[in-house]
Amino acid sequence: MPHSLKDVSVRQASVAGLLFCVLMMAVALFLEHVMGLEPCPLCIFQRVAVLATAAVLAVAALHNPKGRWGILYGVLGLVGVAGGIAVAGRHVWLQSLPPDQVPSCGPGLDYMMDVLPMRDVLTHVLTGSGECADIDFLFLGLSLPAWTLVGFVVLGLFPLAILVRGIRGRAVA
Predict the structure, then answer these.
(1) Domain around 85
(2) Which residues are paired to 143 by β-bridges?
(3) 3-class SS letters over the chain
(4) Relative to the CA of 16, which of 51, 74, 86, 107 has its CA 20 to 30 Å away?
């Protein structure tokens, strides 16, 4: 059992971060399948960021790297988290717009994925649509994208710990 944060291994930080990703996805799936809330395109991209970060953390947990490999996993995990923060931040911003400034609803994500190149899909989704500005659910006064943004900030602590551990391991070696 580690006595302080500096004693936390890469594997421990990776597993803890992976469990947090599982929690984030469990909440998202509960809200979708039990509460009946349909995810908008930005919500789906936020889920992709959680899954990408989870994949990096899972590999880091299995590898339990030292030195430069820890730095690599930390940076890759932070890239996934940064993508999630960017999308969730955009989503919160869209929800804060006055109704007359909300972009009009576009085609669904499934349709865009079928007929458009991925670059165009990303552009359309990230510019947002009217459905992404809807606030369907509040918890403690915050919308789901705001909670997801908080979740990504917390999630970022795990790859950051891996990065710091990798830098310290490299300095010792």
Answers:
(1) 5-172
(2) 138
(3) CCCCHHHCCHHHHHHHHHHHHHHHHHHHHHHHHCCCCCCCHHHHHHHHHHHHHHHHHHHHHHHCCCCHHHHHHHHHHHHHHHHHHHHHHHHHHHHHCCHHHCCCCCCCHHHHHHHCCHHHHHHHHHHCCHHHHCCCCEECCEEHHHHHHHHHHHHCHHHHHHHHHHHHHHHHC
(4) 86
Task: Please state the domain count of the chain.
Answer: 1
142 has which bridge partners?
A: 139
Instruction: Identify the CATH number of the domain in which residue 167 sits.
Output: 1.20.1550.10
pLDDT of residue 173: 46
Question: For 36-60, what is each residue's pLDDT tens digit?
Answer: 888 777 888 899 999 999 999 999 9
97-107, pLDDT tens digit by residue?
766 665 555 55
pTM: 0.75
pLDDT confidence band for 144 (50 / 70 / 90) = confident
CA dist 97 → 4, 55, 61, 129, 142 (Å) = 43, 34, 41, 12, 15
CB 89 within 8 A of CB 101: no
